[in-house]
Amino acid sequence: MEKIPIATEYFAPLHPRGFINRWLVVGPFPIRLASGEVPDEETRRLAPLGALGARWHPIPTDATGRLVLDPPRAGDPVTADGITANWEWVDGGDDYTVCLFDRFTPPFNSIAYLYAEIEIPSMVAALRCRVERGAEIWIDGEPQGILYGAKAKMGETFADAWLPAFLAPGRHTVVVKCWQCRSYGSMNGWGLQLQLVAPEECPACEGHVILPVRDEAEARQRRLQVEAQRTTLTPDVRVGDRVQVQVPAALADCQVQLRFPEADVTWTYDAAAGAGPIPAEWADGHRSVEVEYLDSQGAVIASVSRVLWVAPEGQRPVDPRRAVLEAIAAKQGEKSFNCGAGLVARYALGRAPDDPVAYVGKALDHIDRREDCSDFALLRLIRWRRLFGEAPGSAALAGAIDQRRLDFIYNPADSSAHLMCMTTENHRAAFWVCELLAGEEWPETAFTVTGKDGNWHAARARKQLLDWIDEKMRHGFGEWGCPYLLVDLDLLYMLLDFCHDEELIEAAGRLADKILLLLVNDAWQGALAGAQSRAYADGLLAPHLARPAADVLALLGDPHARPVGGAFSVGVATSKRHPPEWLSAGLNPPGDALIRERQGHQPHIARRMIFRTPDVALASAQISSRRDLLKQKLPWCADLSGGIKLFSSHPGPGNVNSNHRCNYWAGTITAPRLGQARSA
Question: Cα-Cα-Cα-Cα dihedral of 630, 631, 635, 637, to 10°?
Answer without folding.
Answer: -110
